[in-house]
Amino acid sequence: MIQCKLCGHEFDETKEELLECTCGCGGDKVLCPNCGYEVRLPNDARPKKVKKQEEMGFLGKIIKRFRMDSY
After folding, report:
1. What is the DSSP letter of 23?
2. CA-CA 20 to 30 A from 38: which of 5, 46, 55, 64?
3. Is 61 helix (H, G, I), strand (E, B) or coil?
4. What is the DSSP letter of 46?
């Protein structure tokens, strides 16, 4: 259960749909069913984002480069 910071309404975040984010982070906010305010999910309730190899930092970029060169 999370509580909206705007209206104080408590609701079950697992029953609400995650908002799509334009930055590609996977979304960690839901809309309050009472007022429509975007409520951020707590860390333990956020979906686990599986990183692609390219997103794993410097080593991932090197591996991606070698894979592209081998074709």
Report:
1. T
2. 55
3. helix
4. S
Quote the CA–CA distance of 54 and 69 in Å, as a whole number.
15
pTM for this entry: 0.56
* For range 31-59, the mean pLDDT: 76
- In angstroms, what CA-CA distances link 18 with 54, 56, 71? 25, 24, 38
Smallest CA-to-CA distance from 6 within 35, 27, 31, 29 is with: 35
53: CB partners within 8 A, 6+ apart: 60, 63, 64
Helix intervals (H) in 1-71: 58-69
DSSP H or E stretch at residue 11? strand 10-11
